[in-house]
């Protein structure tokens, strides 16, 4: 069963993110299910739906749990993060592309969530 992992953060006292919405697949990988409009992830233009988040700042997410993914992707506003992805269905290949983004407050369709897991 797929679960939705949302790491969209807003608020002065909270860590900030990049606007990725991820689904946890049955194999434990984290797949991009959407990008928050006008977020760093959306604005970079390199990330596609179905891409697999493979690493954060050079650290592999292999066998990572949701809490580890949240901790790795969130941080202080204005801080840089390098996310490594494998492209869609070809994620079994060794090709990883990396995107550097700056964390900031992200608003998502009138709702703000912090690593909310929703069964689909």
UniProtKB/TrEMBL annotation:
Pfam families: PDZ_6. Residues 5-73 form the PDZ domain. SUPFAM superfamilies: PDZ domain-like (SSF50156). PROSITE patterns: PDZ (PS50106). InterPro entries: PDZ, PDZ_6, PDZ_sf. It comes from the Eukaryota. This is PDZ domain-containing protein.
């Amino acid at each position: 069963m797929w679960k939705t992992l949302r790491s969209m953060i807003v608020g002065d006292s909270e860590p900030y993110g990049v606007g990725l919405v991820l689904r946890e697949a049955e194999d434990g990988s984290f797949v991009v299910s959407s990008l928050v409009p006008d977020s760093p992830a959306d604005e970079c233009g390199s990330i596609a739906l179905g891409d697999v988040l493979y690493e954060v700042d050079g650290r592999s997410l292999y066998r990572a749990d949701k809490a580890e993914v949240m901790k790795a992707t969130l941080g202080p506003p204005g801080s840089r993060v390098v996310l490594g992805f494998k492209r869609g269905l070809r994620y079994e290949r060794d090709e990883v592309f990396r995107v550097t983004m700056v964390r900031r407050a992200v608003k998502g369709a009138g709702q703000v969530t912090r690593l909310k897991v929703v069964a689909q």
